[in-house]
Amino acid sequence: TDNLGTPHILQAQHSFDPVLCLSGPTTYPYTGKQVTLQLCKLSGDRDEQLWSYDAAKSTYINKLSGQCLTAPKAENGAILFLLECFAVTDSRPVSTVGIEHASLINHGTLIGGASYVQSSAPIDAKPFISQIGGQNLQGRKVVKEVSVGTEVVLGIDATDPNPTDLVNITIEGLPPDSFFEEVPLSRPQSRTLRWTPRYGAGWTNPVNVFFQVRDVPANPIWPEKPAAPQLGDEVQLRIIVEIPPEWLSPTPAEGTQYNVTPGSSFTLPLLLGDRNVEDSLTIHYSLESMDGQEHPPQNIFVVEDRAATNGTDVTNVLSKAWILTPTAKQGGRRLKACFLGVAKGSNTGLRCISIHVRQSEPIFLNSADITSSLNGHASKVARPTVALEDLLAAYQKNLMSGVVTGDTCDQMCDEVFMGSTISGIIVGGRNDLGEYEVSMKYSRTVRLLPFQGRPLQDISLQPPDGASVSAFGIEQQQGFGSLSAFSLEWTVGAGQEGVWALCWEVFDTFRTAIREQCFAVHVPPCAYVASEGDSIYSISTLFDLEWKSILALNPCLHASPDTVAPGQPVQLGTMYSSGFGGNTLQLAAQYGTDLAHITKLNSWIPGNASLDFPPGQLICVPTPIE
Description:
Layout: E1 20-23, E2 36-39, E3 51-54, E4 59-62, E5 68-70, E6 81-83, E7 107-111, E8 115-119, E9 128-132, E10 135-136, E11 141-147, E12 152-159, E13 166-172, E14 179-180, E15 189-195, E16 207-216, E17 235-242, E18 246-248, E19 257-260, E20 266-274, E21 281-289, E22 301-305, E23 316-324, E24 334-343, E25 346-347, E26 351-357, E27 362-365, H1 388-400, E28 414-415, E29 421-430, E30 438-449, E31 456-460, E32 467-471, E33 484-491, E34 498-508, E35 514-523, E36 527-529, H2 536-542, H3 547-553, E37 569-571, E38 574-577, E39 582-583, H4 584-590, H5 595-601, E40 612-613, E41 618-621
């Protein structure tokens, strides 16, 4: 009933005590909310129950909201609710803000309480995310599994139930180096997320990204009064990256080579990391031989746990350290160490490095290496520099080519005449950081005799005749450890022509490293150097020659034949080179001498024997005396 008072109070006609009144909603927004029967408020704050009648629009207006009473259908039992007031003058549908309930999509205005005109003005509803990666949402969480290094491309779709509202998708928790496409406001809206998970990019696993959509409402019926913007429900995208464990610094790279000194400790650090914080980590390792020798003993490695620290964002780490302490007996060994990191069924792949245990490096020193006192003999330090193999190779090559002079040495030899004295101090030490003692000894003497077609070698473990070797005391020198020294002195005697190799060995305590070097000396035939007290007569007697023949070959000695100055070179005979070959007996007859004299000047020729020689052979023959 309508009491037709001002304001109106609409009461239920068949209600008794208590009296019920038609009441509008009490909280904003009012649009689209149902009108209900409530106990009448006869005084006080009761605007939601007060109504005025607008005769022009033939409708009732609620005092609190200022909105009109309406219904979706013109029939008994229709639901009553509030709506922004408007007039409908014909049967054309009118669109307005949307409502949530499908049964209330169409509504109109009561005209005089008798007729009803239908329109399609929806009540405002909130937007929502409809799809992620082509997957329809069944809830508010989507899980996506991807692999490291593989690009993730996901489309995010959103819409709004209100056809005139625009929407915009927002994102939180975007991973580093990812891309989220910018697009203008639209309905529906689609945006693309692109991301390639890479190591060391500063993300944690799993990656949680949150999407939400906000609408921009539009009211085509009353543009000046759009509804308030609404946020849709938040949707979580959980990206689980399948990540194998990884080696972190300072773990050595694949193929790294290390040199380890015997007696010193070498530490191989291993740091295994995994971005899956719940995974347990394990490091497997092996040690193999690369030099064909027996398998290295495992006890030369000590494995220690280390505090797991690293300079990356990886928090799940395991740290180990291999500590290798090889002995001098392992000098020269080549080893391969391999390691494998394992986490939850995946692994790093096998990584291997090589380890070379340095062999001791004993060396021969020269005078420049001697920095402290050597009892005044530092200038006499001599270093053997020739490898015997090189000298033999040059000797054989030159014999094959017909060269049998001092060139046999290929410039490796020092030329020394018979009668000369050579001396020096040979010093051995070490040129590395190993802790070992150095020893040295005279190893062998090799004499090469230049006879074409039949190379002659004389090998002995003793120094040559006329040479002396003795130990020499020497102080330790900084940087070379303990030293070993010997003195050598050799006066080259008659009949010692040829190429000589005087060889020395320097070696470590365990003889795992032995280095041999030689002095190469060429003693030419037909040449002598005078010493103190020599004369023409004494020299001729030494070589069983006529003194007149020596005087004839050395005009410089005519002035004082009885005294030859020390160091004076003396020619003993003539070098003969056969053009077509021959034999020593014919050669003796040709020069008016005998085999004994030729043999005396060429000690490689057997005594008193006729010896054939090939073309190009060099032979020293006495000068005939007329």
